[in-house]
Amino acid sequence: xxxxxxxxxxxxxxxxxxxxxxxxxxxxFEDNRLLPRLLGEYDAxxxxxxxxxxxxxxxxxxxxxxxxxxxxxxxxxxxxxxxYDRVAKGEAITKxxxxxxxxxxxxxxxxxxxxxxxxTRRRIVTARTPMQSAYLRALERFDLVFGIGPAGTGKTYLxxxxxxxxxxxxxxxxxxxxxxxxxAGERLGFLPGDMKEKVDPYLRPLYDALKDVLxxxxxxxxxxxGIIEVxxxxxxxxRTLSHAFVILDEAQNTSSMQxxxxxxxxxxGSKMAITGDPSQIDLPRGQESGLxxxxxxxxxxxxxxxxxxxxxxxxxxxxVARIVEAYDRADHAxxxxx
Length: 338
What we know:
Layout: E1 2-6, E2 22-28, H1 35-39, H2 44-53, E3 56-60, E4 63-69, H3 70-88, H4 95-107, E5 117-119, E6 124-126, H5 130-141, E7 144-148, H6 155-169, E8 174-179, H7 195-213, H8 216-225, E9 228-232, E10 244-248, H9 256-263, E11 271-276, H10 290-298, E12 304-308, H11 318-337
Parallel strand pairs: 7-11, 7-12, 8-9, 8-10, 10-11
Antiparallel strand pairs: 1-2, 2-4, 3-4, 5-6
Helix pairs in contact: 2-4, 3-4, 5-6, 6-7, 9-10
């Protein structure tokens, strides 16, 4: 890919501030056959970049011309270059990928081409925010990682996807999924069916994530053989979990004793990911969450990392981020009044 630069006046369809320095960048891509996949159906990918960055983009043949605010044009150039590299490798591009590349480029670090990725035989999962990249790199480097933040930030999905990749690479021998069944008071005996059927309602988000990155057939086979195991938190006591990737979801609903019990289950060759949203605690009023206590007590301990997501990392859709922000503002206002 080559590029040329020059000054440009503001486009009539893109109002810009009078103080913005305007720029014009001409990108020439080597393989014209890849452009339809880069641009998307009816140039949808290009339109998404235009809308998010406030630039004007015009494609003709293997040339894309960008015009608009200088900083925005530079981000668009980075994003298009990174997307072209992915297409050249035969990888697909989704709307979510474009959003993620734009977020990373806006952050300034890491650059889009340095996005953290998870690769399984079924899917390539790419971080969509800088914090997601930091989370994936923490999962790679540390044996115990806390993923803390609001719904929709990908903390559970990425942990499951990373666990699946570790299983395929032989880094671990099994995956263990756990979650506190707070709604049932940790007493599941009255529910019909075997253990898997009893805990299915609580672990459904983890199943869904597994079946997204591994084939449904492999998931069912590994569940039957015990390579993938589901266990409510109450049934983890007394076990030592070796050579496994262990995930505790909804950890904000653990008590202090439960969290200590779970943390001390980690055995030789194992990794743990503990995820939770401190704003959605279902414990009895006045009972401290084991998640918050653990993060506080273990800060700075070697081999442990805590990654904190915010509403800026919500990747489901913009509306979810706005909902989270509204609740955060209400909580902040309430704390001031108190």
